[in-house]
Design a protein that fits this description.
Layout (H helix, E strand, L loop, with lengths): L6 E4 L6 H8 L2 H4 L10 H10 L4 H4 L2 E7 L2 E15 L4 E8 L8 H16 L4 E7 L3 H9 L3 E12 L2 E11 L7
Parallel strand pairs: 4-5
Antiparallel strand pairs: 1-2, 2-3, 3-4, 5-7, 6-7
Helix pairs in contact: 1-3
Length: about 180
């Protein structure tokens, strides 16, 4: 089970539809991804239905972050995406509901995902792309051992300004580099 003393990472359930709908259609969050249009409940319902498929089939995995004392209410989500079983890597992203930020729950979630990726999936590395103005995510991923390995200059337009996209990597099995 993907859990520690505070949180549990679980598969999306049909009951999560309204929460996912709220998160996916929050325009304030769109700047951290590539979303440019709202998602319908129908699309999200289909996504939840498809999420039962294996990561080797879909090349992605979304896990809902829930508190141990209330596993029915998601407080965030963590995603593995662009799963590459040949090169043993995947992208990782996290979203925390605004009410549950700054409580250390994202740290717990990323730690569990790092362990899952290393032990269960046998991945060599995880990576993420973070917009240079997203200081909370930069601090989180650096705290979790991710190292900035590159950047794309003026990659993302937010409002009327441009921001770099920072590339972070975390080697899960560093002894393989020898």
């Amino acid at each position: 089970m993907l859990a520690d003393e505070r949180i549990l990472l679980r598969a999306p359930e049909p009951e999560d539809l309204d929460t996912l709908y709220r998160w996916e259609n929050d325009t304030k969050l769109w700047q951290n991804g590539n979303t440019m249009a709202p998602l319908s409940k129908y699309i999200l319902r289909e996504y939840i239905r498809e999420s039962a498929k294996d990561i080797y089939t879909t090349r992605q995995l979304r896990l809902m972050i829930v508190l141990q004392e209330n596993p029915a209410v998601p407080v965030g989500a963590v995603d593995l995406f662009d799963f590459d079983p040949l090169h043993l890597r995947a992208g990782v992203g996290i979203l925390m509901d605004e009410k549950f930020r700054q409580q250390g729950l994202a740290v717990n979630s990323i730690q569990l995902v790092l362990e899952y990726a290393r032990i269960q999936l046998g991945l060599h590395q995880l990576y993420c792309h973070i917009t240079s103005n997203n200081l909370a995510s930069i601090q989180l991923f650096e705290r979790m051992g991710f190292i900035q390995t590159g950047s794309k200059k003026h990659w993302t337009r937010i409002g009327t300004g441009w921001h770099d996209e920072l590339i972070y990597q975390c080697l899960l099995i560093p002894e393989q580099n020898k």
